[in-house]
Amino acid sequence: MTDSKSPRRRSLLKGAAVAAGAMSAPMVSMAQTTSLRFQSTWPAKDIFHEYANDFAKKVNDMAGGRLKIEVLPSGAVVPAFQLLEAVNKGTLDGGHGVVAYHYGKNSALALWGSGPGFGMDANTVLAWHNYGGGKALLDEIYKSLNMEVVSYLYGPMPTQPLGWFKKPVAKVEDMKGLKFRTVGLAVDMFTEMGTAVNPLPGSEIVPALDRGLIDAAEFNNASSDRVLGFPDVVKNCMLQSFHQSGEQFEVLFNKGKYSALSQELRSIIDYAVQAASADMSWKAVQRNSQDYADMKKAGIKFYKTPDAVLRAQLAAWDKTVEKKSGENPLFKKVLESQRTFAERALQWQNDYSVDFKMAYNHYFGKKKS
Predict the structure, then answer these.
(1) CATH of domain 33-157+246-287
(2) For 33-70, what is each residue's pLDDT tens digit?
(3) Cα separation of 331 and 107, whole Å?
(4) Where are the domains of the chain?
């Protein structure tokens, strides 16, 4: 029998204890951190860039040090409209923007945001994308463009205003000849309405308005519009429009960088997208409503876009998509998929949804300004 107090015995016991401890200890601290450099298509001060950072923080927190996403503002590496190419080439590991910014590469890409979407709001467009065939179609388009990227859509945006005008729009004719900023297929829709369109990126809009290079412009929402400085140069905002009533954000990854991640980290990204989508939609209600109220108190005038202008948008949109469908089979394919989903989903949604405006007017109608 070997003496348990012998040096050899004590050495063996100590070695076994160390080995057991190593097996039971968590391995996270030993893992290397994978760092990904992202760029958004938004100025650093915009709430949209904040949304991009919110997404990155959720990934970083859940990854526990194994993955770190850093988000740079628009223009830090490439201009906003060059994000897709930069991510594809690996100049950037990923990015945060909107699909409509890639419109020049394939017109069908703008259907994930531009236009009335057969009556779908942004959340319903996301439902179509995730469960009605939209994701497979987007992948097909990127493949046709030889873009080696992984795309996630999330974050349903509230309905965007018609925009900021030096004079309120009272009739359809007021849109004719205006030098107007918009992007995506809204460019074609407003052009059909007789507007002279200039598709400027977000950071260039207000300076162009201030210098008189454009007469009117739209961007997105009360919070973004306010921080970008629209109220400083124009005092009239027209609310409600069909030009971008169902838009959402896109998170892009370079496919090689994404594929190199472990399955666990890819799952963390999947669920971070879903969490960020919900969080963004809640934050938008709080921030947009507060900034809207503050701008009204500051003397900014808000007007509902006349129904005649909204109907003119729909008519112009119909002409636009008919032309694009004839030119681009993928455009037609996406449009038909949206139509099929919207007809079923919106019948359910419209039949089931109560008129919330009735309840609002019941409680607050007398207080409305």
Answers:
(1) 3.40.190.170
(2) 999 999 999 999 999 999 999 999 999 999 999 999 99
(3) 7
(4) 33-157+246-287
Smallest Cα–Cα separation from 96: which of 269, 242, 225? 269
Tens of pLDDT, residue by residue over 244-272, are 999 999 999 999 999 999 999 999 999 99
For residue 209, what are the contacts with CB-CB under 8 A and spacing of at least 6? 164, 181, 216, 217, 230, 233, 234
User: In terms of DSSP bridges, do strands 149-156 and 248-254 run parallel, antiparallel, or are they unpaired?
Assistant: antiparallel
If phi > 0 it is left, if psi is from -120 to 50 it is alpha, else beta; for residue 117 that is left
Q: Which of 196, 193, 215 is nearest to 309 (CA)?
A: 193
Place of tokens 């207000």: 206
DSSP collapsed to 3 states, 107-169 = HHHHHHCCECHHHCCHHHHHHHHHHCCHHHHHHHHHHHCCCCEEEEEEEECCCCCCEEECCCC
Q: Would you say 331 and 325 are in contact if contact means Cβ atoms under 8 Å apart?
A: yes
